[in-house]
Every structure is written in structure tokens, then in C-alpha cells.
Amino acid sequence: MANKPATAKRTMYYGKGDVFVYRTYAKPLEGIKNIPESSFSCRSNIILGMDIQVSLKGEAFLSSFTEGDNSLIVATDSMKNFILYHAGEYEGATMEGFLAFVSEKFLNKYSHIQAIEMSGRQFPFKEITLETESGSEGSNKVFKEGILEKPTATMELERGDAEYNVASQQSGIEELHLVKVKGSSFHGYIKDEFTTLPETYDRPLFIYLNIYWKYHVEGDGYGDDPTKYVCAEQVKDIAQTIFHQVDSPSIQKLIYEIGKRILTRFPQLKEVSFESNNRTWETILDEIPSSGEGKVFTDPRPPYGFQGFSVTPEDLEREED
Ligand SMILES: O=c1[nH]c(=O)c2[nH]c(=O)[nH]c2[nH]1
């Protein structure tokens, strides 16, 4: 009889999302490398705020799906408690470090878990500024929420024969919304019977940007050695600086330039990747006679365009040659 084809590994996981963790007075993140594009130097971590997601994987969970046998189920409610309890135990300074710490604790505690995937979005609380007789200074007690862009992290830890292995790891910053009112163009694209878009030599380029990065050595992303840690705030500042400096012919070229600068500043990274959206405003009035360069725009109508691209150190080497 012919051999049966090997059955593909089935999808199977369960977990908890939106585990909101607010840890106060975590260890400050200090001693990061300074870069020319950013004045960012420290996260006080007076509030380390995170929205965490956890998924557990393993063959041991099969009977819970097929038989309704819950005897090996860690209730997702207990997962939430586990994460919150360990937020008090964590002695490090980064969300990446916290995810790694909790993942390891889960695998230690429940030997039937084969792999655990955790991800998080950080809420950057910013201290409010107080005006005093000697100038303005930051409050160390009152913080405001509401900055759009958020640092992210995701990792998967697998149980190996002798040790735990990091199956994947990525850090990022999401929801960076940037508009450049002049100095961007888009022309030279295919013109055929489907083309209605006029060429532009100076468009108001509005982009939504998510940027992600991976380390050569996963542990560098935990922040235990702050000189190796890449801060989302610095990556954001690089993206903003390049957007200001480069008169881009397209979003494609713009994100490539941002990626190269990030890899130049942080050689500990093996990849930077992008998801970008084009939200360029629609021009209503191209000229306002009384207002010099003034124009009037409105939000674009759907649909929107997008790009995905990753940049690696080989791109830097190729350009050096
Ligand atoms: O930067 C851009 N890249 C494109 O591929 C594209 N396509 C389009 O219609 N507008 C733009 N802008």
C-alpha cells in the first residue's frame, strides 16, 4: 500500500489578549547608545504600561479541542493572573525583557506547554511638564497617555531537548503618522489605459508607518545590556529625520532610506522591516494668491495604497561596493 502523505501540522493554540499591565517604578532604562538623530536617552519606567497577548501551544492540548477534556487546560483567566503576578517579579527595564521573563516562567511552571508566544504593545506615558521659577521641569508623579505611536514586541519561546529556544523575536513601533507638506514627488510610473493619477512633483505626503526590527543575538533585545538595546523612540526619531531630510520620489524609496539609516546606527540588528500606508491628502486648492505657498487639502478618499519591505545589512554592504 502506498505510504500516506504526512499530515500537515495542524493549527492549535489558545490564550489571552488585552492583558493590561501597569507596573510602576520598574527599573529605568538608562545607558543606551546616543545617536545623532535623537535626544532620547532614558525611559524612567515610573509607569511601564503594556497590553499583552499570550498563546500557549502543544500537542497536550489536542484532547481539549477534540474530547472536551480540560484536565491539561491552564484557564486563560489564570494566564492573565500569571502575567500580572510576574509583573511584580520582573527586575528588568523593557517590555521585550518582560515577555522573555514571563515566557520562561510559563514553560517552567507547566511542563506540558511546548511553546509560548507572547506579544505586547507599550503605552508610552509621558510625564507632564511643570513651570517653576527655575524653568520647566518634568513631574515625576503625573503622566499623560495618548501618544499615537506605540512600541511593540513579540516572541516565541519553544521547549527544546535541553533548553528553551527562541523561535522568533521582533520589536517594533506602530502607528507612526507623519505628514510632510512639501518636498515629495511621485512620477515616472506606468501610464496606460488604467492610469488617471496625475504625476506630482510636490505632494503633501502623509504616511502611516509600522517599523519592526530583529536582532542578530536575541538576548540583545531584552535591555539587560542597554548599550545593545534599540529604543523605539530612537527608531521613530530616525524615521522622522530621514523623512525631513530626503526629498523622496516614492514611499518605497523613503522606507528603504529609513531602513538603511536604522541599520547603520544599530549594527546589532539583522533586519528592519516596514508596513507603510499612503494617506496623502487630496489637493483642493493648489494656490491661494494671498498666501504664498499656502494650499488647501482634505483627507484622501478610500482605497489606500500600502507597501511592505525589509532591509538587511547586505543592502548596506551592496551600496558600499
Ligand atoms: O509613494 C507612492 N508609491 C506608489 O506605489 C504609489 N502609487 C500611487 O498611486 N501613489 C503612490 N505613491
From TrEMBL:
Biological process per Gene Ontology, one example term: purine nucleobase catabolic process
Positions bound to urate: 76-77, 186, 203, 252, 278
Region (Disordered): 292-321
Binding positions (5-hydroxyisourate): 76-77, 186, 203, 252, 278
Keyword Oxidoreductase listed: yes
Pathway: Purine metabolism; urate degradation; (S)-allantoin from urate: step 1/3
Enzymatic reactions: urate + O2 + H2O = 5-hydroxyisourate + H2O2
GO molecular function: urate oxidase activity
UniProt xrefs under Gene3D superfamilies: Urate Oxidase
UniProt keyword annotations, A-Z: Oxidoreductase, Purine metabolism
One Pfam family this sequence matches: Uricase
EC number(s) from the headed UniProt entry: 1.7.3.3
Binding site for O2: 76, 278
Domain of life per record: Bacteria
Top enzyme category: oxidoreductase
Function noted in UniProt: Catalyzes the oxidation of uric acid to 5-hydroxyisourate, which is further processed to form (S)-allantoin.
Family to which the UniProt record says this protein belongs: Belongs to the uricase family.
Protein name: Uricase
Source organism of this protein record: Salipaludibacillus keqinensis
Gene it is expressed from: pucL
